Amino acid sequence: xxxxxxxxxxxxxxxxxxxxxxxxxxxxxxxxxxxxxxxxxxxxxxxxxxxxxxxxxxxxxxxxxxxxxxxxxxxxxxxxxxxxxxxxxxxxxxxxxxxxxxxxxxxxxxxxxxx
Length: 115
Known about the structure:
The protein has one domain (11-99). Helices cover 63% and strands 0% of the residues. The chain has five helices and no strands. Helix 2 runs antiparallel to helix 3 (44-61) and helix 4 packs across helix 5.
């Protein structure tokens, strides 16, 4: 029974991702940023403005990201937290850009690629 419910939830989430950018409640994250809870303080309004800017980029580029990445990144950025549009966008860009790396490329070797 639980597996059927999980499959239905996954299917409905997949349909939602095909329709467009999911709605994320950015208020908890912006309140935390305004309090400095995340290690650095940011004005609440500037946080909101930044998040809405990230959402606008997502709206423009949503169809260009793979559906599997959209679902994976959404789950990753909202598991245990409401998430943010900035986190979602960053995840999607990283997945997209990682695919562009040449086969056998190594990441994190620093300048000069010492092997």
